[in-house]
Design brief:
Elements (H helix, E strand, L loop, with lengths): L2 H15 L30 H18 L5 H4 L5 H12 L2 H13 L5 H17 L3 H44 L1
Helix pairs in contact: 1-2, 1-4, 5-7, 6-7
Length: 176
């Protein structure tokens, strides 16, 4: 795949993931334009909505090309052409992609935040019993747990699909 073809494919995914698909954007900090009206340069991850759009874009690129970004790759702000070169580099590094996805699949779940929230929630309910404060705590606790669990499930489904894609491609390359 040529540089221009790869660039066009990335821009296609970018347009699908954007809040405003047809709006103009600056290639020097194109990731900021995943949200409708970026306020500051390299500030897309400063809001929950922006961070979600940012990481959803990276997930979409990973699935589109069957690649894995490292944590440091996903934390950088790229110019469009730098990002195209990074994707091209990741496409050419099948051994690195396999290592990253295997590491992701072997990673253990971390439940520290869940435990802390539960430890805070239980005494509040026990102290206030059936009271408006305990009801508010219940709603906040439910929202936080939903956010944590849905994020884990999204990551797990993404990693499983990516693992399957990378390993199938590896088997095809070995038999060819």
């Amino acid at each position: 795949m040529t540089h221009e073809e790869l660039r066009d494919e990335i821009l296609s995914v970018f347009k699908e993931q954007r809040q405003s698909p047809g709006a103009d954007f600056d290639e020097a900090h194109f990731l900021d334009f995943l949200i409708a009206s970026p306020s500051v340069k390299n500030g897309v991850k400063n809001t929950f909505k922006g961070a979600r759009a940012y990481y959803n874009f990276f997930r979409a690129i990973e699935l589109k090309f069957g690649i894995c970004f490292t944590l440091s790759d996903a934390d950088k702000y790229y110019k469009l052409d730098q990002f195209v070169l990074k994707v091209s580099d990741r496409i050419g590094n099948s051994r690195g992609n396999k290592k990253i996805i295997r590491d992701r699949m072997a990673e253990k779940e971390n439940y520290i935040l869940d435990i802390v929230l539960t430890v805070i929630f239980i005494p509040v309910v026990l102290y206030f019993k059936l009271h408006i404060v305990s009801l508010i705590a219940l709603v906040l606790y439910g929202m936080a747990m939903r956010w944590l669990i849905s994020g884990r499930m999204t990551d797990k489904k993404h990693n499983q699909a990516l693992y399957k894609m990378i390993m199938e491609r590896d088997k095809k390359e070995e038999t060819a």
